[in-house]
Design goal:
The chain is an alpha/beta fold. Helices cover about 30% and strands about 20% of the residues. The chain has ten helices and twelve strands. Bound molecules: iron/sulfur cluster (SF4) and magnesium ion. Pfam families: ABC_tran, oligo_HPY.
Length: about 325
């Protein structure tokens, strides 16, 4: 609720704070049990920072984070521990977090060593079960990270994330580095695990095709702000925000034959330490009017469960431009 994450910019010999990179600006969202909420937007829009802040990997600047009705942002380290087991993250490159000299079995065993009191034999069995669960084999136990393919490594990343039976997993570009066919297999695995364990996913991705296939709802972010949120069907078939429309019209897919205007984005994303006045999207919005650079549009519900932050939400380009 109202989550903000600013990174101070320090400069000069005195290292005084000279401003802030406003990575996440007042984001409010709910994630329901067993659902997948996609977070989309161009790189640098704050998706990953939002995920890391929710998990407590970044200190919260402002706002509240509740997990199962318990506010967790102010918990002491010790109290936080039980939530650590409940919330996990899967990254784009699991290889980066694996020790190249450590056998995979041992790396997974470490999770149980650190967080449980299971005896060695029990841990070994748990690791073998885990390997099976993610589609790997017993003989993989003694192999090193470099002996695995990209898809297999991501399965190892998933194994590590589910080892302690979490209920909430953030997938940050989890399949973005994989070939399309491997992507499909890993996504299928994530879905199977979701059904089996009633997992909730926050699925961060710049790939709208993957989000459309995988997610129940979608949140669109631009420059640290939430600009649109709804269920996946409405976001893709009936987007209200010009930015969402621009993202969608950039997907080169003949199968997406929904009639819509082609919206091209001009220019780059503005600097998040000095965001534009009014609507943060006005410097690139093809529909922008005078009011847009002055008045910040609120993120409001335009139709049931369909939120957007735009003064002209749902209007057509030709109508607004006259
Ligand atoms: Fe574009 Fe104005 Fe809507 Fe912002 S408020 S998205 S600038 S039309
Ligand atoms: Mg990112």
């Amino acid at each position: 609720n109202g989550v903000k994450k600013y990174f101070p910019i320090k400069g000069g010999i005195l290292k005084r704070v000279q401003g802030n990179v406003k990575a996440v600006e007042s984001v409010s969202l709910k994630l329901y049990k067993g659902e997948s909420l996609g977070i989309v937007g161009e790189s640098g829009c704050g998706k990953s920072t939002l995920g890391r802040t929710i998990l407590g990997l970044e200190e919260l600047t402002e706002g509240k984070i509740k997990f199962n009705e318990q506010e967790i942002q102010d918990l002491k380290r010790k109290e936080k521990k039980k939530f650590v087991k409940e919330m996990q993250m899967i990254f784009q490159d699991p290889y980066a977090s694996l020790n190249p000299r450590q056998r995979i079995g041992n790396a997974l065993d470490e999770v149980f060593r650190m967080h449980t009191k299971m005896p060695a034999q029990e841990r070994k069995e748990a690791v073998l079960d885990l390997l099976k669960e993610v589609g790997l084999k017993e003989e993989h136990y003694d192999r090193y990270p470099h002996e695995f393919s990209g898809g297999q490594r991501q399965r190892i990343g998933i194994a590590r994330a589910i080892a302690l039976h979490p209920s909430f997993i953030i997938c940050d570009e989890a399949v973005s580095a994989l070939d399309v066919s491997v992507q499909a297999q890993v996504l299928k695995l994530l879905k199977t695990l979701q059904e089996k364990y009633h997992l909730s996913y926050l699925f961060i991705s710049h790939d709208l095709g993957v989000v459309r296939y995988f997610c129940d709802r979608v949140l669109v972010m631009y420059l640290g702000h939430t600009v649109e949120m709804s269920d996946v069907t409405r976001i893709f078939n009936h987007p209200l925000h010009p930015y969402t429309r621009a993202l969608l019209s950039a997907i080169p897919r003949p199968t997406m034959n929904v009639k819509r205007e082609r919206i091209r984005l001009v220019g780059d994303m503005p600097n998040p330490s000095n965001p534009p006045s009014g609507c943060v999207f006005h410097t690139r919005c093809p529909m922008a009017q005078e009011i847009c650079s002055v008045d910040k549009p609120a993120f409001i519900e335009h139709e049931k469960d369909h939120f957007a932050a735009c003064h002209f939400a749902g209007e057509s380009l030709s109508r607004v431009l006259g």
